[in-house]
């Protein structure tokens, strides 16, 4: 059971109306509206800490400035960190979050992709979700999670974003975190 002193993790992702988060593997995230990019930047900069899988990092092409970037990979030794704001780790979800909490971080944005999201959900370390529904249909592609993840959510807020997107904020009641 996690205590309330642990890092509060918010999953921050965009998806299409049919629930896809990418068109294919290594797909660049070039299909969201400017207003969603602004929302993502403001929210993650406020949190100061972004957590991602190596495939998402590679798809982004580099670290997000002004935030600490922690990239999960089984092979951190094969990656080169160019600054103190970029770290590669093969640690467990719990160990990495505990280490970041000890560094003083209280909040983190989990920014994908579906495989790392699944690892966090299985560890019970997702507290909130900020999901942007984009006015697109891809027909195929990954979703928010790569495996069956049961989660019971409470809607906190829903608001239009940009020209055709919808920003949904949910709190996890059961399933994503042990102390909800
Ligand atoms: N729509 C959105 O908001 C959004 C957001 C983010 C990403 N995406 C898209 O999603 C796609 C990438 O997602 P993905 O699910 O394929 O990959 P991903 O979750 O970004 O990365 C998977 C990789 O992360 C590492 N990893 C995952 N869990 C780990 C764990 N518990 N411990 C250590 N390492 C772990 C492994 O790296 P190694 O193989 O290096 O060991 C694994 O291959 C891209 O196309 C991207 O554009 C969309």
From TrEMBL:
Q: What is the lineage of its organism?
A: Bacteria, Pseudomonadati, Thermodesulfobacteriota, Desulfobacteria, Desulfobacterales
The record's listing under CDD domains reads: DHFR (cd00209)
Q: In its UniProt entry, what is this protein called?
A: Dihydrofolate reductase
The record's section on Pfam families has: DHFR_1 (PF00186)
Domain DHFR residues, every copy: 26-122
Name the source's superkingdom: Bacteria
Q: Which organism is it from?
A: Desulfobotulus alkaliphilus
GO terms of biological process kind: tetrahydrofolate biosynthetic process
Q: Which GO terms describe its molecular function?
A: dihydrofolate reductase activity
